[in-house]
Amino acid sequence: MKIKNQKIEFVQEGKIQSLGVKIVGFVLLGLVFFGLQASTPPNEVKITHTVSVIHPAIDKLKPIDCYLVEEVLEDGTKQFYLDVDSVNCGENVCKVVVVRMYWDELGRYTTYKLQDDEGLEKKEGAPFTKQDYIKLEKILKNKDSELKSVFKDELVTSDFIDHGNVDVDAVSGATSSVRPEETVEGAVWTCYTLWHWANGGMVSEIRDITSQYLSAKQLRENYLADKNIAYKEFAIEKLIQKKAYDSVTVLELESEAILGEYAVFKMALEYIEQLPKDVYYSAITTLFEKGSYKKRVACLNSVSKTKKGNNKDYYDTLSKKIGDFSYQELEMFLSLLQRNQYTSNTLLEELMPLLKADNFLIARRAFWFLSNQEQVLTKKQKKILKKFKKKNLEKL
Question: Which residues contact 302 (CB under 8 A, 6 or more apart)?
Fold first, then answer.
């Protein structure tokens, strides 16, 4: 989703310009909100970004124009906020209040605020309790909630309404299609609406805004070097988008992949998979040589699915290490070579000792690969292979 435009506004003491959310008849405009006149520092600079996002509670196909505000806090950190309707109510019987949603610079939802004299309501006009607000906050911070994959038409069902498709919290008898722990009882639509604001399309918009003025160097030094995994992943994501494939960045990503946790390694591997053929194979060789078992398997999977073509040097380099492979690594590597109809003297020489491996699965896998290469084996190698077959015939 492309950022349309942005504007800078200067908030003077006692004044604030309108920033509302334009949502085709659903969202209230205006920001005279939370007593901001008294709390806003004089001459504070804010940037208003006009962005378009899809919100499934409103329309799953048509984007909504929103006015997202970016501001720098006193401690130098950056945050974003957006004013939204608390619920999209099909029958206009729900109480709708304005909720201010907050995110950090990585697009991670942080909290929400209401006006002092406003509160959220459940069905039949019951106000949210203190426990309801606590549960709502927990729901909004769960990025893997069931609400993520539920369609609007499937969220709430009712078998006694005959005057249209009613999908509101306020109608008694409505039943939620998600587990009770995923919503506040009686406020299914409120939870659904706010969850998709907190964790939906606005997240990628904020990440794009944060990165748009950052160079590859800034991403490496200010984000990739951060100890927090979320910042590392953000840096890698944006380095891929910016196609920053210079030698310095490649080396930095190799280092992060080798030393970092598996989540960082997987992101770094995505970056490395975008590199030109020779650079890719060089990097993947380094990652395999210095990686843990789990990372080595991921490297083999990467090479297996790559469309960069064969690389003799890479295959021979791995062939020399085949004696240290686990059975799974050996199986993956030999299957890869078979698909590519690849063999070499180096590979055959390294495979022969595996016929004596303590793990018979390894010995047997080596035997079957060598059997298919018999036409290029030396007389000595054929003799060893024949002897192995005779000794282990019942196991083969």
Answer: 269, 272, 273, 284
Residue 350 falls in which region: left (phi positive, over 0), alpha (psi -120 to 50) or beta: alpha
Domains and CATH numbers, the chain: 5-203 (no CATH), 214-309 (1.25.10), 324-396 (no CATH)
Helix spans in the chain (H): 36-39, 130-140, 152-155, 188-199, 201-211, 216-218, 229-241, 247-259, 262-272, 277-290, 293-305, 312-319, 327-339, 345-351, 360-371, 379-391
pLDDT at 78: 92
Beta bridge partners of residue 103, listed in sequence order: 80, 109
Q: Which residues contact 211 (CB under 8 A, 6 or more apart)?
A: 219, 234, 238, 241, 242
What span, in angstroms and rounded, lies between the C-alpha atoms of 292 and 140?
Answer: 36
Residue 142 CB partners (closer than 8 Å, separation 6+): none
Residues of the chain with pLDDT under 50: 1-43, 90, 159-173
- The Cβ of residue 107 has, within 10 Å, a number of other Cβ atoms equal to 20
Identity at 182, one-letter amino acid code: E
C-alpha 394/C-alpha 251 separation (Å) is 50
What pLDDT was estimated at residue 174?
A: 53
Query: Which among 111, 15, 134, 17 is positioned nearest to 67, based on CA atoms?
Result: 17
